[in-house]
Structure formats: structure tokens, C-alpha cells
Amino acid sequence: YWQQKGSLPANLEVLNDPISSFMSPRDPQTGEAYEYHLVSAKGFQLCAVFNKATVAYPDAYPFGNSWQHGAGRVCFDRTIDQALYPVNAKPEPVRPI
Predict the structure, then answer these.
(1) pLDDT exceeds 80 at position 31
(2) Is pTM, for the whole model, over 0.70?
(3) Cα separation of 46 and 42, whole Å?
């Protein structure tokens, strides 16, 4: 969404696209929507309730696993890195001759 629009969505439902059949993921056990909060122009928070903690495998993620979590409600703070996710330039409209 960021790369196409140059902004973050106001909520996760904005990501739903019936034409491409994309629907925002939901909690697979409860069916509830994940919590999503805009924090800044490039920052957001994603929260979910986990029934158990992730298992840590130190050698599996040499640069760290930023999605590891404990049991219970956990929030992940994320900020868009524009070097990794640049906004795609929009093509110039074709003008008739």
C-alpha cells in the first residue's frame, strides 16, 4: 500500500480488494480483525492476542526476528523505511496528439 499510495492506510479494511480477492488477514483462531493504529505518517502499530509465545531459534534468524512475541496481547511498532520500500513513481498520463 505504501509503495503504491505513498501513505499508510487509515485502517486494514482499506486493503481489502474484492477484484484481486485480497482480504486483510484475521486472527485464525478467533476470526477477529487484528488491531492496527496509525502512529505517524510512516509509523503504525499492529496488535494481536497470541495463545502462546514464539519459540526462539537463535541461529534461524541471524539478524533477529522482530516478530517474536510472548503469550497474550502483543503490539508491534513499525516504521516504513523508504530506502527499502520506496514509493513507486506514477507514470505520466498519455496525452493525445
Answers:
(1) yes
(2) yes
(3) 13
